[in-house]
Design a protein that fits this description.
The structure holds two protein chains of two kinds. Chain A is of the alpha+beta class. Chain A has a single domain, classed as Alpha-Beta Plaits. Chain A is built from two helices and six strands. In chain A, the strands form two sheets. Chain A has a four-stranded antiparallel β-sheet with strand order 2-5-1-6, with helices on one face. Chain A has a two-stranded antiparallel sheet with strand order 3-4. In chain A, strand 3 and strand 4 form a beta hairpin. In chain A, helix 1 packs antiparallel against helix 2. The radius of gyration of chain A is 17 Å and the shape is elongated. Chain B is mostly helical. Chain B has a single domain, classed as Ammonium transporter fold (Orthogonal Bundle), CATH 1.10.3430.10. In chain B, 62% of the residues lie in helices and 0% in strands. Classes of the chains: A alpha+beta, B mainly alpha. Chains A and B meet through strand 3 and strand 4 of A and helix 9 and helix 10 of B.
Amino acid sequence: MMKVEAIIQPSRFESVKDALREAGIEGMTVTEVRGHGRQKGHTEVYRGREYTVDLLPKIKLELVLPDKLVNLVVDTILKTAKTGKIGDGKIFLTRVDEAIRIRNEERGESAL
Amino acid sequence: MPNAAFLTEPSKPSHAAAKNLAYGVMRVMTRVSKCLCLFTLMALWLVPARAQQSAVPSSAPAATSSSSGVAQPEIPKAVNDKLADLDKRVTAAQSSGDNAWMLVSAALVLMMTGPGLALFYGGLVRRKNALAMMMQSFAMMALITVLWALVGYSLCFGGSGPVIGDFAHAFLRGVGVDPNPDYAATIPQLTFMVYQLMFAVITPALITGATAERMKFSGTVLFMTLWFLFVYAPLAHMVWGKGGILNAALGGRFPTLDFAGGTVVHISSGVSALVCALYMGKRVGFPKQPMPPHSLVLSFIGACLLWVGWFGFNAGSALAAGSLASSAFVATHFGAAAAAVGWSAAEWLKNGKASALGAISGAVAGLVAITPAAGFVGPMPALAIGLIAGVFCYFMVTRVKAIFGYDDALDAFGVHGAGGTIGALLTGVFAQQVINPIFGAGKPVGGLDGHWGQIGNQLVGIAIAWGFALVGTIVILKITDLITGFRVTEEQEVEGLDITQHGEEAYYLES
């Protein structure tokens, strides 16, 4: 089991979500986050005082998947989240030791 | 505020009667002309054989009885009774119109505090202090009202002392439906009292803009109580009260043109705000830590409510529903609009963008500046005053504050103190007799009439307001600091005033 963690542009989120659903992937956790890699922020001015805003809004997607689905999901996200510009985001893959469904205490890949 | 007869000539006591006469002529002329027209028609109808007077009155001296000055040898009793009845009804109609407008104006001015100022200030602070900011405005609505009812009105408008009133009207004794002829002869004194109250409510609320995000609530309550009693009441009495030394209408020695409270409300609160900001010191983290407004949407709504409410503040200061109210209404609106243009233009040139916060701040600055001028200047000068104030306050808030480094958090001084000062000065420049012949028919009023000395008189009033606010605030700050303390601890400031002072959160996002 692998966890796919993707940080993407908020404007690409709807397309990514639709594409994943069409690919038959069910289940994800979505959080609104702030951050930056190499992307520069912008300056805001309030009554003459300047503020540099360098923590930019992003969307974080987390999916825990059986190994055989990981490549499909990664390719789907790459295809739909990419704009070609700095700030597109990143995908991280980590191994998951166990998954348990709370409702019936099922374990393993069938719990996903 | 009392609009009529601020005189700037060195006081000549023998002209007191002339002042009252001029005042009376303006106000009664409409009534007299109506009565004489009606009388003539009735006479024509009832007594066809008699010779007639001309139906159009010349500028007759203040004649309240329509049956005097007419060359009729004998007036039938029936006609006389009818005329007396008509006179009463015309007076009642006049009074009814004035009272309706003044009650609406009082409501408009209260709306300026709640929710106008509460939203405007509330949106400008960080989320953790939003409720505390609004609570401070609301607390004034409650606290000042009680103080006003008990002693405040009496201290401001009772008696005839030079600096302060007396306790004759404590507990609103003697304040009922009969007009108080010293202040507003066509409306019940209750209306005048409650209208004035709304000014007393908003003035201390303005100060909270400078002390935002670090003032103790207990300190606020104590400070504002003392400030209202010992700074606002004397200033209000000096400028608007009978016998006040700055009130020329009723015999003051240093008369200043101040139609709706540029000195009493804006200079006093603005200067006091600066003193408080300097005394308290800067917010933790200022100026390095970013502290942007948490909701400009709230500030926007608040600013628009202030603009609309200001019609009650300025046009209501005509104390009647006549042509002067119309003139002040238009001047107010034009001043706000031109100032918004001025501030936005200056900001656009400097930063490349015109911001929403800048536009609404500009409008407020214009409203402040037009406050002393509203009932004395024409529409075009109102545009000029607004434009100048918008640009001037923009520089006060963005450049001057940065140069001196004081933390006037919400620019109470930059907008109200500075705007009130420039407005009071420009009133001396632009006031005209054709708008408001307060010195009597044919007498020049301000610079545009050629009477440039008026600017000197304005400077005296400004200086007195500044000095009084400065000294009074310093003393009251010291007292407050000794009794309740004035500033929260650093931990409380970092955690936020909503939680530490009021035990609440403005937005509970999890529920």
